[in-house]
Amino acid sequence: MTDKELHKIIDRLLKLPKECEWAEFKLNFKHEDEIGKYISALSNGACLQNEPFGYLVFGIDDKSLQVVGTTFRPKLHKVGNEELENWLLQRTSPRIEVLIFETIYNNCLISLFQIQAAQSQPTCFSHGDFVRVGSITRSLKEFPEKEKKIWTKAPKHAFEKGIAMNVESSAEIISLLDTQCYFDLLKIAYPSTREAVIEKFASEKFIKKTASGFAITNLGALLFAKNIQDFDSVKRKSVRVILYENKNKLKAIKEHEGKYGYAVGFEGMIKYINDLLPTNEIMGQAFRDTVNMYPEIAIRELVANAIIHQDFEEKGTGPVVEIYADRIEISNPGVPLITPNRFIDECQSRNEDLAGIMRRFRICEERGSGMDKVVANIEIFQLPAYDAMIQEKHTKVVLYAYQKFADMDKQDRIRACYQHACLKYVMNEKMTNTTLRERFKIADENAAMVSRIIKDTAQAGFIKEEDPDNNSRKFVKYIPVWA
Question: Among residues 233, 256, 285, which one ends one of the domains?
């Protein structure tokens, strides 16, 4: 945030008659716990007053609202050996966004905390919920009607529609956003005038016209930022790629964080990931050929899905691609809106505007989630089935390196059988013992081994016979249990 933008916020706060539910003024620092309680109270107070942020400001007298300056430098302050910002973040739940700024205002140093309003649940600090009653901080438990209101209060607007930055001129938009990328991806000519470019971006909701100029939306910044770090609201949403030396996190060889918006940097990011992946050499009739160990289309679809389906309300984190010696883990913030067992046939995005434009750019599948292509290519490359894991605040999909059938455990085989049945079903076909043998490259004489896998998968509740009344066991067809 620029000094100019910070000064506008301070100007607005100074026009308040006094401290309120979402604004607190202090001269200097007293104790870390006090700041934590204010973060909880101001976040909850902002929610109740329909304000997007609460503010804790050091350098303003709380009685006279006179600007006198402060000696408190929160970005330099440490609790033991831990930075204050991280210390506060670790004790705040859920992980709302708290941004700390310093600026010189009227020749005085001002330190300002911008605190995201609570959404759908109270903001807690060190297992305590607080709220502002006028200018007093109280325990939220004393006011059950306020607590209930926070729990039932849903976010008013989709994240994509939020404002990432206000600018005064169209020239600033061109300098901050790669407008050429939009027209290149849609394969249409770049307009001959800047005004036409601005009109198109406004029609797509990448920017908004305001009384004082323009506002770049979060959607516009996420997609087209020339440097995503320029935008505070989305800078932590860039994709991180980490390459580890072995099968664990003990030694990272490389770590890279994306600089560009998703649309601008996607192809380069996928190339960067694929260049890090191990390869195999295959000897043909005359030449050696080097092929990737993992299918590129699977990497592409899974990274695109992590971007599109992430929960932007989970602050301080974005999509992560971790490459190990034996697997790739692709994670995104937020738990999925559908069960992982239905990834292949269902698709529900919490970020419809982002998903829609990325499909138009052909960055991801137009229909569904593209997971049918992931499964199909996993089978072509003879890899173990992917695994999907729901963690406390993240969703992780794991691609495994090649394993011999004999090295796969029971759960690996059940997952592969279920995903094969799903793939056949969405292709308007049915799984049989024969198709599953082909999937595993198992000889016909070992059909009994495949029958055992099918039985285990059915007993686990993942598949069923298409026609349970069929008395012939020779040509039994199987479908997913949800079909």
Answer: 233
